[in-house]
Amino acid sequence: MEQEAAETARESLELVFRMSNILDTGLDRHTLSVLIALCDLGLNPEALAAVVKELRQESGNNHGSRLR
Amino acid sequence: MKKGEERVMEEEDDQQKAADLVHELVLRLLSQNPQTPTPDPTSPSFLKTLRYAHRILRSRLTPSVSPDASAIAESLKRRLATHGRSSDALAFADLYAKFSSKTGPGSVNNKWSLLYLLRIVSEDRQSAVTGLDSSLLLPNLNLGDEPVSSSSSSLGRNKKSNNGVLLVSKDPENLRDVAFREYASLIKEESEVTEEVLVRDVLYACQGIDGKYVKFNSEIDGYAVVDYVKVPRGTRTMVRMLSELGWLFKKVKSFVSESMDRFPGEHVGTVGQAFCAALQDELSDYYKLLAVLEAQGMNPIPLVSESATSSCYLSLRRLSVWFAEPMVKMRLMAVLVDKCKVLRGGAMAGAIHLHAQHGDPLVHEFMMSLLRCVCSPLFEMVRSWVLEGELEDTFGEFFVVGQPVKVDLLWREGYKLHHGMLPSFISPSLAQRILRTGKSINFLRVCCDDHGWAGAASEAAAASGTTTRRGGLGYGETDALEHLVAEAAKRIDKHLLDVLYTRYKFKEHCLAIKRYLLLGQGDFVQYLMDIVGPKLSEPANNISSFELAGFLEAAIRASNAQYDDRDMLDRLKVKMMPHGSGDRGWDVFSLEYEARAPLDTVFTESVLSKYLRVFNFLWKLKRVEHALIGIWKTMKPNCITSNSFAKLQASVKLQLLSALRRCQVLWNEMNHFVTNFQYYIMFEVLEVSWCNFSKEMEAAKDLDDLLAAHEKYLNFIVGKSLLGEQSQTIRKSLFVLFELILRFRSHADRLYEGIYELQIRTKEPGRERNKTQESSSWINEGRKAITQRAGEFLQSMSQDMDSIAKEYTTSLDAFLSLLPLQQSVDLKFLFFRLDFTEFYSRLHSKGKES
Questions:
Q1: Mean pLDDT score of chain B, rounded to an integer?
Q2: How many domains is chain B built from?
Q3: Are A50 and B62 a contacting pair at CB < 8 A?
Q4: Do A44 and B22 touch (CB under 8 A)?
Q5: In this complex, do B106 and A39 lie within 8 Å of one another by their Cβ atoms?
Q6: Which of B17, B97, B209, B457 has the maximal Cβ count within 10 Å?
Q7: Residue B244 domain-assigned (yes or no)
Q8: What is the C-alpha separation between B366 and B364, in angstroms, rounded?
Q9: Which residue of B lies nearest to A38 if distances are taken between CA atoms?
């Protein structure tokens, strides 16, 4: 059971990662997993998006086309 | 916000977890910075960033869009597709499908928010990469409670200002933004009610229910925003316009429910019911639309390009677009409902049909589908009427109306077209054909006791491609209907005529009538005249019709008529007309022909009375002819008479001869007239019209044709025989002539009787003493006296003869002068025939000159 859940979680993360790549969000797997967890906790996705954007800008105007 | 904070505090566990996650997130994001690859989690700058992140997260606790993962996925996919990345769009759709199918433990619970997050992040990056300043685009005008949120680039511009608190920029670059905001607040001030509420109220109003602010106002007869609420005038007008739909809906709805309520008791009729059902169908479509609008109305518009807020899906303007089509339909229905309130049946269908003649394809199509429903009962009636002859019309809606009549009137009066119920898409000629076909079936069934029509009907149905089942026809298939009617009419009419001709021997009966009533059978008439003549000279009340019937039977047996069909001879009857005191047998005697069903449809009473008139006329003519022949028999010059004259005195002899001569001349003249007149009647009237009638009888396609042909035949005879209305004067003069001829006959008879007496007297004087008073007086006075008596007698006779001749000449002159005035050409020929030596015309002109 536990194993199955982990499997599903892994697959979901993979799917989300691929979707995110198609959408060109520039987020890596780790960041995505953190975001998924935060979303599941019920945080406002708009706010999360704002955080992502702000912190990226904070850390220099590198828009991470290299980040892939 | 405070409330949100408290709630967060309560869920401390979650809170702790979230804080850890945020910490991790900040760490991850910062670590991506190439300048500070490994940030120090304890450094003040890191803590500051963390605080900043927390502040941002706290600032918006609820998302501004409704949670709908699939809508977001759809919009993402569409955006990819419009950006020319269709393969990516497909891949994305595929991934999303897999993603959304993952459920249960370990899967992502909050799918939509994750997707939403991805979308915003992606959009942010995109706009940052392309450097697109979306503040140059029109921001969404928001009338909602939230202030207009800043666009993404203004966020970027304001990042230096106090710790990331999102402030709307007020720099001059953003003037347009400011203007829009001001406008929005202006509108908000003006209206106390938000648009969503009004939209909901309009949706209610469209179902005929009063909303909170939009209520039915009986003064203006419509829905409107109540007066005490302040809304801009434009909105007020818009609401009124939109809620017209509600007014129309109420009208249609009330009609439908009223009709349904009334149905079993009062006569709404099947067409009315069909109409109601069709309306009900349309209304349920309308309900569906309203339900969808209501459900979707409160959802926000899934926006693609604008990040934060979007207003509710339905605005009054959007509603007006949605309502455009239902409004057209509802208006039409309301108009129809108004029109049809008082109408029923075919009239209703016709009225609706008039509205279907519309150029707009939407209206046209709508009306067609409506009419198809409405007309189906009507077409069903036509079908069963044409193929089965049944009038299934309990509510009096069909354009054929049946009346209970006697069997012999069934064809002529049993069924009528009801023009009020004839819908205009059925042409009058088609209606006539429909009427006749069903009538033919009923006629066959009731009058002819025939069942062969069923085969003809099913044959017709097969030929026209429809089945004899129900519901084969519909509105708009007028061609098919016409075809069906034509096929059915052709076969059934043919069958009907076949039955009439072969089984009921229509033709033979007509011939029999011609032979006996129109005196076509010469020997029979001659014999009848011979034996019945003496009897008819008696006063009418001395004659019994049984006696005459005996004479008739004798005449039949003595003539060739005996070989005729017994059935027909049995129908020939003597008829005594009602007579007054002075009438003689000649005036009341006539023959009649008894018509039985179904032929009494053709030979109705009025037709038979016409035949009777013709018969009486011909009989009179025949009698005159007979009289003339009778005189000829007695006055034929022979040696007996001429011998006996030799013994007379010269003066008496001269007198006698001149009287005889005058008599002969007059007889000749009369005979010339009567012979020619009879020739005219027999050969130019009766035979010609019979010939035409036979031809038309062959060509007749249906019973109406046959009736018309017979009518024509009879009218032709009546008209040509000078029995018509317009030949009254000439008929009178003709009868005067007949009268004179008959008078001449009795005078001639007396003359010859006298001559005969004289002969006896001169041969055997004094032998017969007890003769008549006259002759005995002659005896008494002796031979001389006899001569004197004879002279006197002859003188008075010749005087009478002179007066008759004179009267006859003037009457004939009058008759001949009337002849050319008649309209018919044939009478002119008669005139030529009578006046072939121009004797009369010369006499006439001479008389005029003198």
A1: 77
A2: 4
A3: no
A4: no
A5: no
A6: B457
A7: yes
A8: 5
A9: B18
pLDDT of residue B647: 62
Residues 4-43 of B with CB under 8 A from A: 14, 17-18, 21-22, 24-26, 28-30, 32-36
CA distances from residue B689 to B616, B681, B694, B711 in whole angstroms, order as listed = 19, 11, 9, 11
Residue B446 sits in the same domain as residue B394: yes
Do B837 and B770 fall into the same domain? yes
Q: Which residues of A touch B107 (CB under 8 A)?
A: 8-9, 12
Using CB atoms and an 8 Å cut-off, which of residues 625-664 of chain B contact chain A?
none
The answer to whether residues B428 and B510 belong to one domain is no
Average pLDDT over residues B397-406: 82
- Reported ipTM: 0.81
Query: B-contacting residues of A 23-52, CB under 8 Å?
Result: 23-28, 30-31, 34-52
Reported as a single tens digit per residue, the pLDDT across B282-339 is 889 888 988 888 887 767 665 554 444 546 677 788 888 888 888 888 888 888 888 8
The predicted structure's pLDDT at residue B154: 40
pLDDT < 70 positions in chain A: 1, 58-68
Distances (CA, A) of B669 to B113, B626, B674, B744, B758: 128, 15, 9, 12, 27
In the predicted model, what is the mean pLDDT of residues B382-386?
Answer: 84
Which of residues 57 through 96 in chain B touch A, CB cutoff 8 A? 57-64, 76, 80, 88, 91-92, 95-96
Same domain? For B631 and B510 the reply is: no
**What DSSP letter does each residue of B721-770 carry, written as one string?**
TT-SGGGHHHHHHHHHHHHHHHHHHHHHHHHHHHHHHHHHHHHSTTT-TT
From B356, B369, B375, select the one nearest B269 (Cα to Cα): B375
Per-residue pLDDT, averaged over B156-169, amounts to 43
Q: Are B127 and B152 in contact (CB under 8 A)?
A: yes
Q: Does the residue B34 lie in any domain?
A: no
Backbone angles phi, psi at B391, to 5 degrees: -100, 90
* Whether B647 and B587 share a structural domain: no
Task: Please give the Cα distance from B318 to B107 (Å, whole number).
Answer: 39
CB contact under 8 Å between A46 and B120, yes or no, is yes
Chain B window 281-310: which residues touch A at a Cβ cutoff of 8 Å?
307-308
B634 and B558 in a common domain: no
Domain ranges of chain A: 2-58
Question: H or E element: which one contains B573?
Answer: strand B572-576
Q: Is residue B65 part of a domain?
A: no
Residues B480 and B516 in one domain: no
Residues B477 and B509 in one domain: no
pLDDT tens string B190-204? 666 777 788 888 888
Instruction: Report the range of poorest mean pLDDT among B94-108, B369-383, B431-445, B488-502.
Output: B94-108
Residue B436 corresponds to which tokens in the numbers above? Answer: 């006749």
Instruction: List Cα–Cα distances, B553 to B20, B32, B519, B574, in angstroms.
Output: 135, 136, 16, 10
B363 in any annotated domain: no
CA distance B829 to B690: 19
Residue A68: per-residue pLDDT: 35
User: Taking CB atoms and an 8 Å limit, are B108 and A12 in contact across chains?
Assistant: yes
Out of B36, B110, B152, closest to residue A59 by CB: B36
Residues of B in contact with A17 (CB under 8 A): none
Domain range enclosing B766: 617-849
Closest CA in chain B for residue A64: B32
| Domain end marker among B319, B340, B361 | B340
Nearest to A44 among B24, B63, B109 (CB): B63
